[in-house]
């Protein structure tokens, strides 16, 4: 069985990226439009990129437009437990370390395909065992943040604050999407 | 000085005092004021006014301080170690309607999940609203089986009062014509969804004695003139009831009984008034009033009345009586029987089964129905076919079908991410149907609460010690509750049927009962057939404390019916000069 580093090395070859040394900048990302509270600017940049990879813009807004990175930064500032903060920040560090090991650049400086390939490794790792892995935790925060955001609840899902009536049996095609609230 | 005292006394004198403003206090206030009595309602917690004091009722999912309104673990652990045990009560949206456990401690000799809300309206704001009548067999069971003591009343005594209360509060439901599951005065039933309809048809084909019906719930579906005149209107299917309903669609004391009482001009509500004891007038041989501790000024004060209704909830009414000692009542008020604080009951739950219905994948629902299905008791109905040899009494199921939300597989990982996963979670997940049992707990004399003068609450008042456990009868019933539920789902063709028993500690049913039971004999019970304290006729106890046995159905409707009946009795007795 391949260990994580071997997996990443193989992956680096697959996507054809050479290990060209430490890139050291976040040149590929846009500047944040918000100021993080709990996160460092560098961590916030990774969160911004990874949130959008987990829930991208499609025919509906993605995590970035829904303010998910701000949601998670806020959660880390006033809600998360220490172990969660530690796990998330260790996760961000690992993303950079793995990106550097595979491609010689920070995570945010990689091409989207390279970023996705790294996240796929994490997702596969968590399929067997979730205990202690940062990725399911991060993914859960992104998912919660997104589907409880106004764009997520009202555009990706369907939201009706005051239904007024209950119809117990309707063709799903008529509703189209899942209800945002139960 | 004598004159001043006389004036002070008159100022603090009413025809009736109602202690507590929850599900029974609200009905007591309504009935007594409408019959012309000047009534003081004393509530230990702060004011909650209908509409004005529902701060979270209209918040959208994105308007929360914390993710999904979930409170941080540290705050839950520090302030709500008991209240959090339900898993649903302690959120940013609801915390103002529940007590802080660190301010209201009690001692658990055995685990007891005491879920409480101290404010005007009490738990009538946060109750589950399922409203069923106790049946003839419930009132006869103790006598027939030689358990505890006999109820001093029968179903027929309460039936007209069930009618009366149902018409006032508004209950929607389906009449079923079952003798052990009496029908009532119902507004149109809420609809079953497609999976529930299929479950009903298929399960009833195999088990015709296990009727599947829509829950009978205190939500308006076709409001009456009286309900509209109180400012209540029909259910809007938001399913945010626990935050307080701005439509007054479900019954609460705040939107119903207290408003009706206020309308008479005969009501005074005094919040922040912790009733600490009943005052007994030795000379007259009756209670002359109550003593309170003002929760804001921390001063004691006395209020006087001819009639006193204890509606403080089963354990708190018992607490007040246990704390009311005098030379006449050295062991607690009206406690010659030594039954005060004993026979604590609840409904045991957390056991049942669930299954999936994949064949309905292209169907869905609209609206959020604040109600589920109900399966009335089908065991030990008095005939050979339903007789169980392994336990007494029975249980009902509550449950329903729904589709998994975007929250499915939360935190599991390995499900992929990106556009495909986003699209997947934007569609509803599997249809799942669940059945959860609500079982009758027998009254055991040594399932009791006692007054603890060593542990004090934040006001320096004594607290309760809980010693209540589940026994063999309940445990045997639970095994049947699990297997019979799985059996029904399997008979209905559901897939991946799984039984569960998550365990249960008394209290979590939030149906505390039996601490001052009704009975025929003052030697073995605290209250008589009219809910009067045997030994002090002008004190009525009409909350869950009065229950002689528990039945398996949700009890609030019975408390309300007993309260209305007792209020009628009190007004007549007072007119006759008996109180």
UniProtKB/TrEMBL annotation, chain A:
InterPro entries hit by this protein: Gluconate_2DH_su3, TAT_signal
Keywords, ordered alphabetically: Signal
Pfam families: Gluconate_2-dh3
Signal peptide: 1-28
Protein's recorded name: Gluconate 2-dehydrogenase subunit 3 family protein
TrEMBL record, chain B:
Span of domain Glucose-methanol-choline oxidoreductase C-terminal: 443-562
Record SUPFAM superfamilies: FAD-linked reductases, C-terminal domain, FAD/NAD(P)-binding domain
UniProt keyword annotation of Oxidoreductase present: yes
Superkingdom field: Bacteria
Domain Glucose-methanol-choline oxidoreductase N-terminal as annotated: residue spans: 15-347
InterPro entries registered for this protein in UniProt: FAD/NAD-bd_sf, GMC_OxRdtase_N, GMC_OxRtase_C, P2Ox-like
Swiss-Prot/TrEMBL cofactor(s): FAD
One MF annotation (Gene Ontology) recorded for this entry: oxidoreductase activity, acting on CH-OH group of donors
Signal peptide residue numbers: none
Keywords for this protein: FAD, Flavoprotein, Oxidoreductase
Protein family: Belongs to the GMC oxidoreductase family.
Name used for this protein in its record: GMC family oxidoreductase
């Amino acid at each position: 069985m391949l260990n994580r580093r071997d997996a990443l090395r193989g992956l680096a070859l697959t996507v054809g990226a050479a290990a060209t040394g430490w890139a050291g900048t976040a040149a590929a990302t846009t500047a944040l439009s918000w100021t993080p509270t709990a996160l460092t600017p560098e961590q916030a940049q990774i969160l911004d990129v990874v949130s959008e990879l987990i829930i991208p813009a499609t025919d509906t807004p993605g995590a970035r437009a829904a303010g998910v990175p701000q949601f998670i930064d806020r959660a880390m500032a006033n809600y998360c437990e220490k172990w969660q903060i530690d796990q998330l920040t260790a996760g961000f560090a690992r993303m950079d370390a793995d990106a550097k090991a595979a491609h010689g650049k920070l995570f945010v400086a990689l091409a989207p395909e390279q970023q996705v390939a790294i996240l796929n490794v994490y997702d596969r790792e968590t399929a067997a065992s979730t205990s202690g892995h940062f990725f399911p935790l991060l993914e859960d925060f992104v998912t919660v943040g997104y589907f409880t955001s106004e764009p997520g609840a009202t555009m990706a899902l369907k939201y009706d604050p005051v239904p007024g009536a209950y119809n117990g049996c309707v063709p799903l095609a008529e509703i189209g999407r899942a209800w945002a609230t139960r | 000085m004598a004159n001043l005292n006389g004036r002070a006394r008159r100022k603090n004198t009413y025809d009736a005092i109602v202690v507590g403003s929850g599900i029974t206090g609200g009905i007591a206030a309504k009935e007594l004021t409408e019959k012309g009595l000047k009534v003081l309602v004393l509530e230990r917690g702060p004011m909650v006014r209908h509409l004005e004091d529902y701060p979270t009722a209209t918040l959208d999912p994105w308007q929360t301080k914390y993710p999904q309104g979930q409170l941080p673990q540290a705050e839950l652990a520090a302030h709500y170690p008991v209240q959090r045990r339900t898993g649903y009560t302690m959120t940013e949206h609801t915390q103002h309607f529940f007590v802080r456990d660190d301010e209201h401690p009690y001692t658990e000799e055995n685990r007891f999940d005491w879920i409480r809300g101290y404010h005007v309206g009490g738990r009538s704001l946060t109750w589950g609203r399922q409203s069923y009548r106790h049946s003839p067999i419930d009132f006869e069971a103790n006598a027939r089986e030689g358990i505890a003591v006999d109820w001093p009343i029968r179903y027929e005594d309460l039936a007209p009062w069930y009618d009366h209360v149902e018409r006032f509060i508004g209950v929607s439901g389906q009449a079923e014509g079952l003798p052990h599951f009496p029908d009532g005065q119902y507004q149109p039933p809420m609809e079953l969804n497609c999976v529930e309809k299929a479950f009903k048809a298929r399960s009833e084909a195999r088990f015709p004695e296990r009727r599947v019906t829509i829950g009978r719930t205190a939500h308006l579906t076709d409001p009456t003139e009286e309900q509209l005149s109180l400012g209540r209107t029909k259910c809007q299917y938001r399913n945010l009831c626990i935050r307080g309903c701005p439509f007054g669609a479900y019954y609460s004391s705040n939107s119903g009984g207290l408003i009706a009482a206020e309308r008479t001009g005969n009501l005074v509500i005094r919040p922040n008034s912790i009733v600490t004891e009943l005052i007994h007038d030795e000379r007259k041989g009756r209670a002359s009033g109550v003593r309170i501790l003002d929760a804001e000024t921390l001063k004691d004060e006395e209020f006087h009345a001819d009639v006193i209704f204890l509606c403080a909830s089963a354990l708190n009414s018992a607490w007040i009586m246990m704390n009311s000692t005098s030379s006449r009542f050295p062991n607690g008020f009206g406690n010659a029987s030594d039954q005060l604080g004993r026979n604590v009951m609840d409904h045991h739950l957390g056991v049942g089964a669930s299954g999936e219905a994949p064949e309905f994948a292209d169907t869905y629902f609209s609206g959020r129905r604040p109600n589920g299905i109900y399966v009335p008791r089908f065991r030990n109905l008095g005939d050979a076919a339903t007789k169980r040899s392994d336990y007494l009494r029975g249980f009902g199921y509550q449950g329903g079908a729904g589709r998994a939300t975007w929250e499915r597989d939360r935190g599991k990982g390995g499900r992929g991410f990106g556009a495909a996963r986003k699209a997947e979670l934007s569609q509803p997940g599997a249809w799942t149907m669940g059945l959860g049992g609500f079982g009758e707990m027998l009254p055991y004399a040594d399932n009791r609460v006692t007054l603890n003068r060593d542990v004090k609450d934040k006001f320096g008042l004594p607290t309760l010690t809980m010693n209540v456990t589940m026994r063999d009868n309940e445990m045997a019933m639970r095994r049947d509750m699990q297997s019979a539920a799985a059996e029904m789902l399997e008979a209905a063709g559901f897939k991946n049927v799984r039984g569960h028993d998550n365990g249960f500690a008394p209290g979590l049913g939030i149906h505390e009962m039996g601490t001052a039971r009704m009975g025929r004999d003052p030697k073995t019970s605290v209250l008589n057939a009219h809910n009067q304290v045997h030994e002090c006729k002008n004190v009525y106890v009409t909350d869950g404390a009065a229950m002689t046995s528990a039945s398996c159905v949700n009890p609030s409707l019975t408390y309300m019916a007993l309260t209305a009946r007792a209020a009628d009795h009190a007004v007549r007795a007072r007119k006759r000069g008996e109180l």
